[in-house]
# Entry
Amino acid sequence: MPIVRPIGDQSCRSPGKSLQGCHVRGTKAIAGIEEVRFGPFRLCVRQRSLSTADGPIPLSSRAFDILTTLIELRHRAVPKDELMNRVWANVVVEENNLHVQIAAIRRALGAHHRAIVTIPGRGYRFIGDLIPDPASFSDAASPASPARGTREEPQSNLPAEVTPLIGREAELAATCELLGQARLVTLVGPGGVGKTKLALTAARAMAEDFAAGCWLVELGSVAEAALVPSVIAARLKIEEIEGRELVDSLIMAVRPLPILLLLDSCEHVAGAVAELTDRLLHHCLDLRILCTSQVPLGIEGEHIRRIAPFEVPDAASVPTAVAALRHHAVRLFADRVAAADGRFELADNMAASVVEICRSLDGIPLAIELAAARVPLLGLEPVRLRIANRLALLGEPGDPAGRHRMLRAAIEWSYNLLPEVDRQILRRLSVFAGGFTLAAAQEVAAGAGFATWDIVRGVGNLVQRSLLTTGPDLVHPRHRILEATRDFAFEALAAADEHAVVARRHAEYFCGLAESAVGGNAPAGEDSVWETSGDAAWMTPLVPEIENLRAALGWCLGADGDPALGSRLAAATARFWFEGGHLSEGRGWLARALERVPADLGASVLIRLKRGLADLSIEAATAVAAAREAVTLAAATGDPVTEGVCLRMLSSALYRLGRYDEAERAALRAFELLRHSGRLRTLAKCVADLCILRGVTGDHAGARRYNAEAQARLRALGDDRGAAICLQYAAEFEFAAGEARAAARLALESVAVFRSLNSRYHLEIGLGNLAAYLLAADDAEGARASAREALAIAHEIEDFPGVAIAIEHIALASARLGAVETAAILFGYVEEAHRRLELERQGTEQTIHTGLLSILSAALSPEQQMSLTTEGQLLPTKTAVALALRA
# Structure
């Protein structure tokens, strides 16, 4: 059967050493330089190379010189002529050559291409963060560049950077580009998201483009809108001219100056700021204004850049520190903890806790920083455990700077600015988890004096005030309350004694959504939508609501909830948890529901609970017991369709227990009961079950017949993934019958489907199986190419058993192609990986292993083989992967 493997783990890689006081240059050597780092990149000037942890990045000589020049002169925009004079000295070239090389650099930087920004009319600029950040570069700059020692530094009141900006490279690049093109840029986002820090960093990066300096004006403490002009004038040290309006005095003073004005926290005085900004921009042509606000100013010429919290993955998807640190929220948390306690280094066993903390705080940078500051005192686990009451934790007294009050104060401040009706709506919306549609808000938050139109207007107001965020999908928009704001509003909801009523409306809404997604809940075997559509079609409405489903189940099955409603919801979502891959979670909800089953619960719901438990249980015996109970209950209803659905579930469970004859009898009986029922997907699964059962008993001809029928049924339903999995079964049957090339053709078909569905894990397995079939068919080149792609995917998704299998395929292909020594090194790595991961080779894998060992033993002396194998055993995974991809 096709190989199925769990995703493994990987040890955390220690970061490489970078040198202090390094300098970079374009075309001439600079004394003392060895390397600089930015993002994931390492630039070695002495070796003239750019690389990442995954290997070297190809870059032409000219592109390398341009990149080092831009890094050297990163404190300013570098004009095109200057770049061309430095890189193509004494050579006449067209400007297009420069454009080509800049494009090549950006392609090489990939997702970090915004480190190179174009500033219209000024040239190009490097704005990435260097690690370490060189204090200065060589004074041996080109003649076109003013000497640092003689140039007057621009005036500014920007505070010095205390901690580095983390995770906002793309936003920083976009902001700098906008400031080069537009005269008014507004960073819009909720409180605590890091708008001020981003704006300050952008202003510092652009400072030398403004001869009159960059000036910060903090408006957060301004209580009255009428005071805005005077606050700005005072910050710029502009005196009011007697007999003139203060705004006129501002205009006269600022008009001749190339200046950047940073207006921070404008939301509560947005109208006054908009009016003043509009007048200043109309009269002061060299003025640029950068604002931070929870709402746009809404005036002509405004360019808005929305700043969202950091995205945070599920803890299960980042099993190692290396994987976790790829996410900005985790990087920020780890950096701030390390700043507070130099002993801290994120380890694999901490990764899940840190991700959980960041996720609970919804990726809000300020909240993450405040939580990180508590780790040296309280410890990581206590912080994680107490984060459920995070506002109280972050608000504990004792911080002399008072930063612990900032987040709650920002939320409470924004809340108190709302009219009472919007406060009530925000409180009711706090029952949603993970976002909501406007339709859901209208159903859940309406009532008690609110019409649906009131909810529409209220949601619009809350979005405008940045108390709700709206996702990028403008066709089917989703709104969300940031987690810290939600906690505040949730407390207010409880204080208003509305929680029970609103939570019930929330649970009823999502129970109805789940039941309609699968096609109703009576009779238990109906599920009309699920039965007649592919996975994507029926799951689509539920996928974005997973957090709401959890919240609804949690309330229903909690101490003060509604067990009957919870049982309905658990039964309706059982298929969703299974086919969405949330097996343990689904089991948990079903078990909790079954523990609290009301005496008067309908038979149809109880059957679905039992059937769902059979589907989701890891232990085959538990699955068989639950399925048998479901069959008994179904038979008692007298409904043959319900009984047929449950018998098919019993067949699957019996197969897992190794009782193939009983399983086949149950599958055949289920097929007979369902043959004319229209339960198309269950029938297709029955046929697929029979295919597997015939295969394990050695009846390959029968297995092929059932397989063809199962594929046809699944394709007709639009279940392309299920059909492709059947193709993998078919390939295995051909391979078992000695038809390697036929197996390879079928594997290629399944690979094409998985590639089109972007199903990375199944694609990896399909490519690995294809490599094995091609090796059996003596196509070493084709096998190596397929295994290389499988290896790249396995390494990317951290499927480390898959990494070992793919490398062994590559080793055998390479050995057959003459690269015996490389194959021996890879063999050593694979042996050590199997020992470390406690892997057992399946039939095909054992054949490949034996074939590789045979070639190595024939081509190498025992001493050579031992030496090379030992070398491979010591290889880190990344090194082994890089070697295999080059083999």
About this structure: Residues 804 and 830 are 5 Å apart (CA to CA).
